[in-house]
Sequence to fold (344 residues):
Amino acid sequence: MNLLEYEAKEILRRYNIPVPNGFIVKNPEDLRKVKPPYVLKAQIGHGSRKKHGLIKITNNYNEALEFYNYLRSKNLDVYLEEFFEHEAEIYLSITCNRQNGKITILASTFGGVDIEDIDEKYIIRKDLSILEENSPYVFREVIRRLGLRGEIFKKVSDVFYKMYKIFIEKDCLLVEINPLGIRGNDLMALDAKIIIDDDAYFRQGFSKLDVNYTKLDGNIGCIVNGAGLAMATLDMIILKGGKPANFLDIGGGASKEVMKNAIRKVLSNKNVKVLLINILGGITRCDEIAEAIIECLNEINIPLVVRLRGTNEDKGIEILRKEGINVYKSLEEAIDMAIKLSKI
Fold:
């Protein structure tokens, strides 16, 4: 499960990692609870928010209010936090290395929105052995290689080790702070990403998504209602030369919230290049599915292919077409388009 930023930061707070004071904005008057500059962030389940215009920093209340209203018009939750002026940024990450079965820790003095584009030579990477796990010394040595010294070296090392404790104790697949803002000897986790292993829900107190999901090795994300239809959809994709990225059955009578959770689950797989939604409405209402798609539209930054048939089909198609989304009635045509887009 990919936690939203405000959820991840709440966990950081519990482990005494400094984060700016912040909260989910419930109404426009909440904006006055923070002194400018205002930092407003859309809460969505993927990165690159700043590049997509979903983060705004402004000294102007009216601009902040306008941005808040814009995000709410898109049914996005808005997180407001205090501004932390910083001189430098650091990237810190702890993740599972599926190739060797070890825990990999990463650190770089090149933090921020373009970390994916940084040359590997500027990123310190270390795979932990069993003997090295749970050793604060290992994390201090990695931070020392960043060139940090003195009080800030101790503080960053402490944050890195606390991230490791979160990783272990919360059954995580990823704990990332990007960036960790530095000002003199002060620091602040300005953004955070935490992914918790789905199989650890029962231990971590999270409820299941109410969908049946299995990750596969392809690049066509699939959301279908009904196990039989889901299997038929995957079979047709494969027969036509495509590669499904997952099996996902939202079941019969899926609510809007279940559909939104399903979309976010599929999008959490970075291999997905196109999202295929195949709904044959019986108990499931096509208009409710369409509304869920619209509410997640700002989170869908890949091509979208939708096939709708069944209950309230015309209403669902009308809702989607108003947003410029073409809807297929033929499953074969929808799959052909999904495969074509996946190969671009």
Summary: The chain has a mean pLDDT of 90.
